[in-house]
Write a structure and sequence with these properties.
By secondary structure, this protein is mainly beta. It has one helix spanning about 50-65, and strands spanning about 1-5, 10-15, 25-35, 40-50, 70-80, 100, 110, 120, 125-130, 135-145, 155-165, 170-180.
Length: about 180
């Protein structure tokens, strides 16, 4: 129990949890499988950073009655010209990175999440990117717009891989994305 002085009159006991288990810091994690010729050649987990506009969007929906974004999409980040992600990145302004479009799907892949449980939400089936070119992938992002190579919509999060991922035509990147608190 903590005590709080109220207007210098008395101390009142207040039950205020001090441990992080009672706070709600959001975090996300991508699990990626790199598949070539039907075999998983690499698998790794990558934590993401939630950007300012993404967190602001969440706060606006829950505390300011803004309409929620109901569908989210995942895109790949090209290594060419990559310098850094920034908390201030938006879909219209992200000078440190560019999107990779080296996959055959016509649009960014939709993140189809299940119901939240145990303080997390994730997709049951992987998001599959069918690679159709030789490319070096630096990372991944989540946005509200499905337009491949587009610059509109709300950017939710970005993540850089620990090391670059070299892909070739015929590879598949299978992605699971989990947000937890």
């Amino acid at each position: 129990m903590n005590t709080v002085r109220i207007e210098d009159r008395a101390e009142v006991a207040v039950d205020r949890p001090n441990d992080l288990a009672h706070r709600a810091p959001l975090k996300g994690k991508f699990t990626i499988q790199h598949v070539r010729d039907g075999e998983v050649i690499a698998e790794w987990d990558v934590p993401n950073g939630i950007v300012d506009v993404g967190l602001n969007s969440l706060l606006e929906v829950y505390f300011h009655a803004t309409s929620q974004i109901t569908t989210w999409y995942v895109g790949l980040v090209d290594n060419a010209g990559f310098s850094a992600f920034n908390n201030a990145d938006t879909m219209g302004s992200h000078a440190g990175w560019a999107e990779s479009t080296a996959y055959s799907q016509a649009n960014r892949v939709e993140w189809t999440e299940g119901a939240a449980a145990a303080r997390s939400i994730t997709n049951a089936a992987t998001l599959d990117f069918s690679i159709n070119a030789t490319a070096t992938i630096k990372g991944i992002f989540v946005t509200s717009n499905n337009t491949k190579g587009g610059t509109t919509g709300t950017l939710w999060s970005t993540a850089a891989f620990a090391s670059n991922v070299s892909v070739v035509n015929g590879d598949t990147l299978k992605i699971t994305y989990t947000v937890s608190g």
